[in-house]
Amino acid sequence: MTNPLKFREKVFATKDKYNLSFQETGERFDIPIRTLFRWQNKLAPCTTRNKPATKINMEALAKDVEMYPDAYQWERAKRLGVAHRTVGDALKRLAISRKKNTQTSKS
Q1: What is the pLDDT of residues 79-100, one digit of tens each?
Q2: What is the secondary structure of 28-84 as a DSSP string?
Q3: Are residues 87 and 53 in contact, defined by beta-carbon separation less than 8 angstroms?
């Protein structure tokens, strides 16, 4: 679990206020020294991970969606040679959601 930015700022404010070393600060707040050094370089926690797709070709998926707009994810996965969950994650990256029913049923 990541510590909030306010807590991180409080830790370094206390370190500066009482002129503590990293080891003393770590013992006071029960935080490893390595974590304090990492926070010193970048105080704000990283909330998102921008990692490109490694298992699927995004252009091929976009072309597949264009050619077969009504296909199921498992069908796309079979054509592209990946797992259906990989296709679902890639569609989310492309901001393509499932097809919605625009007309309400009579039942």
Answers
A1: 999 999 999 999 998 998 876 6
A2: HHT--HHHHHHHHH--SPP-------SSS-HHHHHHHHHH-TT--HHHHHHHHTS-H
A3: no
17: its two tokens: 């206020």
- Using CA atoms, how far apart are residues 68 and 91, in angstroms rounded to an integer? 14
Q: How far apart are CA 59 and CA 15, in angstroms?
A: 50
| Domain extent listing, the chain | 5-41, 58-93
Closest CA to 3 of 37, 28, 39: 39
pTM of the model: 0.53
Question: Measured in whole angstroms, how far is the alpha carbon of residue 88 from the centre of its chain?
Answer: 15
